[in-house]
Structures are given as structure tokens and as C-alpha cells.
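Form 12-C: Joint structure prediction
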Amino acid sequence: MEGRGIELNIGPVHPATHGVLKLVADIEGDTVKNAKVEIGFLHRGKEKIAELRYFNSYFPIVDKLDYVGALNWEILWASTVEKAMNLEINDRVKYIRAVMAEIQRIMSHLVYIGSFGQDLGNLTFFIWALRERELLMDIVEEISGGRLAPMYNRVGGVFYDFTDGIADKINTALSKIEEKVKKEYRAMTYENSLFIMRSKGIGIMGQKVIKENGVTGPNMRASGIKRDLRKDEPYLVYDKVDFEIITENDSDVYARFMVRVREILESIKIIRQLLKDMPKGDAKISAPWIMKVPAGYTLVRHEMSKGEGAMFLVTDGGLKPYRLKIRSPSFYSLQALPLVLEGCKVADAFVITASMDPVMGEVDR
Amino acid sequence: MIFNEIYSMLAYYLPPKANLIASALATFVLILIVLIATPIILGWVDRKFSARIQSRYGPIYVGKFGLLQNFADVIKLMGKNFVTNQYVDRFSYNLIPILSSALSFLLIALLPFGAPSLTFISLPYNLLFIYILLAFSPLLIIIASWGENNKFAVLGGFRSAAQITTYELALIVTFISIGIVNGSYDIINVIASQSLIWNIIYLPLTAVVFFIGSIAVIERAPFDLPESSQELQAGWRIEYSGLKYGLFMIGDYVKLLAVSILFVSLFLGGWSGAFLPGIIWFWIKTVVALMFLMSLRWSLGRPRIDQLLSIGWKWLLPLSVINLIIVEVMMLI
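Section 2 - Result
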């Protein structure tokens, strides 16, 4: 039947679009003919703000880039400035940062899993995932004093060393999470037939789409591309720990979900090793609060919870950056989204969008 | 009927005409109490139960255990302004909440509350009448969704029509099977004929079909696709607010109770049971069925509309027909 179809505006205020993402979808019957992604509702000019601030005063802004993965971005910004300054940091600080990065990765993936469950109409799962995230939130709070935006790092080190006995607390929390992921989450999601029915075989993102659009991270690894900056270009202390790059081959929504679930377990493994090998001593900060950074161009790439994040910093030898360019992985995932959404069902469109794990804070910057 | 009971109780004290008015008033007050209290209390149970599933506390502040929370919410709903979009079709927009909740109330008024005499309306063919009431709701939903003049509402309305039409077919087949097995379309008689062996033993497939089909027909999660809040932002209810939305909510809970009472009456033998009085058995079974229905909502995601329809057409309808044929053959032997 030939019909005119409906143009449906989904978002920016919609319960399923994860922030202020807006989709404009042409719908015929129950099928999405094509979809457009509109972004920019959360644009706050963060790259410009960098030019107005001292290097250390930029951390609060970095926290709000990816507000469910703040520590990862903090570490990236700190590493960028340190590289620009040719600053060598303490070994213990490296370990602490790696532990915090992995904790943050687990937290971010838990939010992903929860919101994904919610988009499938299962509110219980959302609250369960946040319940597990809370365990780690408490640990981050105890270490840094902050929760969502901890502001824990600074150039040359971290603000506070680990508190006494935090390693035990982290280990207890991790084993709790491991148990929940392996038992409760399995029953609720990845071995639940209703869940599989909804997520398998939809939203297939082939390797071509991924390479053309620069999609990275778990979204890429779900399509069978084995690439992880932690392994390929080890930073911090990732060359000293033993872990695997998680890949799935189905490149559908289910594979993207499974990559995250398995990465949580892998991160738990990493944190355990790091805590065991952590060197004694104190985490001294090796740079002043306000300092000049020599002129030059610096590019640092890290593996974020959502893909490869990079910062390209141009300095002119002054107290503030000359120019900063941020590569946020979610932005590139959203580039591929319209291609993946083409021809899917309306109900699946939300699931596929959720499976990309966009965080608008870092997309709009 | 409750009216008759009250009438015969009061007959000793009052002259016939005064008695007629008095017992009519008493029945009316009783209906109001049941209709208002049930959804509110059920809503509390639902919130508390879901909270325990989700490792939360649920309502705790208003009243003991938060028991009065839902009364407070209803009062808040009553105090809200009616926000009406200027493009809606006023007539259908205002009519549907009233009609739809009236239908649900009628549904529960037809059902027995634990004893043969505890019904508000007694009809000889009340099972068929219940079916008619259930079958009526997609019509109302389509009118509502069209009248709201909103894309999300229309999508939800069409989904709802497709879903309910599919599952009603399965439901009518289960009703026919029950009619054949028990020789009656009157719920009271159906329960009476189950005093020895419950229907669920004769008709296990039909029981499953009825259970799934009834969830789909009352649009309860996980089959709440027409109003799925994550996709369609409440679907065909998108433009409703305040008490009009509240009426839908109340109607939902009433339907939930109606479906569990219906399941208990049709398959689990109603008030038949050993040792305890019948009315207690009846409510124990109803609460168990209700809790099961509620826990489904909080533990399963929702399927896609085409998957839901294919479950309905490919599995439930054939299954119920097969069970019907088996029953027919057994009856002939």
C-alpha cells in the first residue's frame, strides 16, 4: 500500500533517547524509512572554554563531557597535559589512575545495561543496574569525595591517595557485582528468551559502516574488529596486566550488549590484578597548580568506556591552552546511527539507539 | 446479588417501599466503596511489591507503611488542572476516559466476590457479557487516539487495536471451551461445576492461553505496547493529564483485579476448597493470581508488536482451538 507515512520527531525530551538526542524518523506503517539524528541541544562550547582556563581548572569541565564516565576523561586530559609538558608521573599514580579508569568503565557499562533494559520496557533491570553501580559510587566517593563528577585527577597526579583498606572494599564490591552479573543479569537479560527475541538480529552494523564512520570501542568490537587501545597502544600500566580484548561476531544489538557485559567481567579482572600489584609509597603530585606548558602539538588517545577518546592540544607556551580538540567516541557512533536505523521497526529504533550508548554531554561538547 | 441480600436483611425493619430505596442506596454506596478502594489499595500493593522486587522501599511516608500514599495521590490528581491541547477533538477526548473506566467498573460489577450472592449485577450469560466488555475497549482506544490528534497516540492506538483484536480471538475460544466443559456461561454455575475437579486440570492449555491473552487484552505489562512509555511516551494516553489520566489508571487496576478474579473463577475453582470457608479460599487464590500478574510486569521486558501478534496468531489461537477439539472429543466419549 502506498501511503504518505508519518514524520515522527523523537526527542529531544523523550524518555528513551538518553539525554537530549533528537531523531527525526520517516515512518511508514511500523517501519522506519530513514532517520536523521539532530544533535547540539547540549552544546556548551567546552572546547572554547578550554582556551579560557588554566590547565588544572579545566578538570571540572572535562567531568561533564561524559557524565557517566567522568574519570576516564579526567585521566585523558591529565595525560595530555603531562605529555605536552614531558612530565613523568609517579608509578603509584599510574596504578591508581588505571584502577579508577576501570571502576569508571564498569560504572558506565552498568548504566548502559540498565538503560538498555529500561528501553526494553523492564524498569526493574534499570534499578538493579544502578544498585550495583551504587557500590562503586560509594568507593569513588570515599576516594575522591565526589560521585558523578569526582574531580579527582590533576596534572601530575591525583588529589588524594587511596584511603586505608580501600582495596578490600573494592574487592568486596567487585565480587558482589561479578556475582550479580553472572547470575541475576543472566536470568534477566542475556539468557532471557524475551530479551533475546528483542535484541538478536536487529541493528546490524557491518564492518564497512564502522570503518567509514570511525565507530570505536565496544560498538566496534561487537562487529568482530579486534582493537583496543589498552592493548594496542598501552598507556598507564595496561601493559603490565593480563586481559583479553572482548569481541563478538554478530554485530547486532545483542552482540553490543554482550560485549559490555563481558567487559565488566574483564575490568573486574584487571582491577584485581592492579590492586595486587599496586606499589607502595605515596602519590606525589609533580606539577604546580598553575604552570606554563611548552609550545607544541600533543595528541593522546585513550580507550574510554564508549570508544576511543582523544584530545588534540595546541599550546603556545602560555598558562592556558591555545586550542583543544576533543574526539568523543559517542559522536562517531551517532554518525553511524541513521545507517543502522534504516528499515528497522519503530520499536527497535529505540533499542538500537540505546545499544549505541550515546552520551549527549560528550557528543555536543 | 448484593441488592437482594440487603433487601432481605432490611425487610424485617422497613416497609417494602422504603426498603427498596434504602437497599438501593446501600448497594450504591457499597459499589462506590469497592470501586474507589480497590484500585487505590491495589495500586499500593503494586507499588510496594515492585519496590521490593527492585530493592527499594516504595511508599513509606504517608500513613503506616505508606498505606495512604495512593489516597494522597488521587487527591493530588483531582486537584490538577486539565491541560488540553487545542487541536484535540474535545468530544471524544473527554468522553473516552469516562467510558473506558465505566467499562472496567462494569466488568468488575459482573464478577462474584467470593460467594454466589456477592455480585452487584447478576446475568444468566455473564461470561459472554464480560467478553463483550473486553471486546469493546479497542474501539474506545482508537477513538481516543484519533481524537487526540497526536502521532504517538495514533501509533499506540493502532498497536492497541491490532493487539486486542488478536488476543480476543484466543479469549473467545477459551470461553467457548469453558462453556462446553461446564455446560454454562454463567460464572456462578461454572464455579459450582468445578467443586470436585478444577477446570485447569481439564483445560491446561486453555488456562495458559487465557492467562496470556487476558494480560494482552487488558494491556498490562509486559504486553503494554500501546502505551509503552519508553517508545511511545504513554501511547494513546499521551494527551491526557490530571483526573482523566487518573481514570485510566484506576480502570487499569480494576481490570487487573477483574482478570485475576476471572482466572480464579474459571480455572481454579473459585470458592471451592477444603477446611477454610469458601470466601477465604477465593481471596487467597485471587491474591496469588494477582501477585503473579504483577510480578510478570516487573520481571519481563516487552516484545515487539509483530512478535506479539505472531505469538497470538501462531501459538495461542491454534493451542486454544486444539484444546477445544480435545474437549469436544472427550465430551462425545
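Section 3 - Comments
The two ends of chain B are 37 Å apart (CA to CA). The mean pLDDT of chain B is 81.
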